[in-house]
Amino acid sequence: MFDARPIGIFDSGVGGLTVLEALTQRFPHEGFIYLGDTARVPYGTKSARTVERYSVQVADCLLRRGVKGLVVACNTASALGLAALRAHCPVPVLGVIEPGCRAAIGVTAAREEPGRVGVIGTRSTVSSGAYPYHLAMLDPRIQVLSLACPLFVPLVEEGWVDHPAVRMIVEESLTPLFAQRLDALILGCTHYPVLKKVIAETMPGVALVDSSAAVADDLGRYLGGVIRTAPPGQTRRLEFLVTDVADRFKETARRFIAGVEAEWVEMVDL
Amino acid sequence: MFDARPIGIFDSGVGGLTVLEALTQRFPHEGFIYLGDTARVPYGTKSARTVERYSVQVADCLLRRGVKGLVVACNTASALGLAALRAHCPVPVLGVIEPGCRAAIGVTAAREEPGRVGVIGTRSTVSSGAYPYHLAMLDPRIQVLSLACPLFVPLVEEGWVDHPAVRMIVEESLTPLFAQRLDALILGCTHYPVLKKVIAETMPGVALVDSSAAVADDLGRYLGGVIRTAPPGQTRRLEFLVTDVADRFKETARRFIAGVEAEWVEMVDL
Asked: Does residue B109 sit in the same domain as residue B201?
């Protein structure tokens, strides 16, 4: 009744490692294969058609390696590619949008007035409308304000996290949300939690929703059900695949995750 | 003795339009097909192997459309892919590195002491060593200081050009060059001329070298020689190809070029 096969997790680059860290902490016996499509990062500026095509190629690579389920850690790929991936893959596919929306609804549920939720993400994630759609499914009264913050990803990728220029860019980017009396702000991109401190100081009194914990909850619901758990006591197996420049992946990975060492990184062609 | 076929020009995205503008002004009767690999931009963070592979795919697409010569406007593709492209293509291939180096040498030639030239570019361009190599070929005494400025491309792509945060990022990025008494600074990326004003104010007394004019000189040397000129009086033909999101290409193109309207943009699969 157990399944020793690993779970696939994919992102356009390194950002999804924040999700991987949450999953490895919650499920210490499960194996994971992480694939970062570093040759084609970023996804957040690409069209739906291109993101869909790239996502399916990544999924095929992970399926060939025998994964028993797939976690789409990238918000853009979840927003634009999830339907295609679910149609394509013979294993369960989890995205990050729905869990993030559930976590945001959890914040607003106690309010008497309709909740007010902000969503920040890449240009492609925001223009997909995936967050407003899923939030409305969970609570039709909810007010949603979406905002693309396209500079946050390059700032994080380049390690500009606590610099006065970053503070200025974050403040100016979030200005449209200041007067909106938000209850919660969804960090709708795996890179944004790295800027959490600056964002929190810029948006005082607003609950920040980082979906990685919510994704772990979701995977918990699948495991033991449609995805069988690993044999108890199985020694964890972690593999890292990238599509370009393995060295830089390791370096950037260090900025993202404390608990996972990406020592062995394999380069693959999709 | 004439050749009505167009000249191909390629870049990872929109940056090469600064080069296209210089070429269309200098050669009003030549036709050009511009290809921006917008699905896979940026090239500047990718490995030599990947940039080479992508460059050859782009060249094949332009060759299928019958170009009589190829201008590699992208500095990263010129730095990492030029040898492969010249081996692969049956038509003459021009890059931007050598012309830029010649222009910089022109600035330093009058000095009695060995010239001191700075080069800023993407991480991949800088780590390729292509600029120091070509500068040393032209003047073995020259002192070269190279510096990667990886945030400049996303700032320009997102239209952050004249903001105080941009000034802070430019100043902090260029700090290692301040004490170097440079004669010239090569803007070794097609995006950087857009930040010329801020860079000039940050590096007073240093001649900024923008290679687009130098590339036009180079093409002038080829035309009439290994590349035949267009029939006199030929009406200019301009075509634009992109690999993703044609609409955004048009919008960003407006920020780059005054003289060329990218009204018709075709999307291609490589």
From this structure: yes
Range of the domain at A39: 7-95+213-267
What residues of chain A, 94 to 123, have a C-beta less than 8 Å from chain B?
none
* Contact status, residue B192 vs residue B199, Cβ threshold 8 Å: yes
Give the number of domains in chain A.
2
Cis-peptide into A42, omega within 30 deg: yes
Q: Could you report the per-residue pLDDT of B163-195, keeping only the tens digit for each?
A: 999 999 999 999 999 999 999 999 999 999 989
Are B94 and B27 in contact by the 8 Å Cβ rule? The answer is no
| Pairwise CA distance, residues A188 & A175, whole Å | 17
pLDDT at B233: 86
Q: What single string gives the DSSP state of each residue in A206-227?
A: -EEE-HHHHHHHHHHHHBTTTB
Contact A245 B45 (CB under 8 A): yes
Residue A244 distance to chain B (closest CA, Å) = 6
Provide the CATH number for the domain around residue B43: 3.40.50.1860
- Note whether A248 contacts B: Cβ–Cβ < 8 A: yes
Residue B235's pLDDT band (boundaries 50, 70, 90)?
Answer: confident
Q: Do A168 and B164 touch (CB under 8 A)?
A: yes
Model confidence band, residue B81 (pLDDT cutoffs 50, 70, 90): very high
Same domain, A195 and A119: yes
Answer yes or no: do A174 and A124 share one domain. yes
With tokens 């223009």, the residue in question is A127
Tell me which residue in B151, B153, B244 faces A50 most closely, judged by beta carbons.
B244
List the end-to-end C-alpha distance of chain A, in Å, as a whole number.
33
The answer as to whether A1 is a domain residue is: no
Same domain for B224 and B197: no
Q: How much is the pTM?
A: 0.87
Co-location of B88 and B140 in the same domain: no
Q: Is the dihedral of CA A38, A44, A49, A55 positive or negative?
A: positive
Chain A nearest C-alpha distance from B47 (Å): 6
- Nearest-5° angle of CA B203, CA B209, CA B210? 120
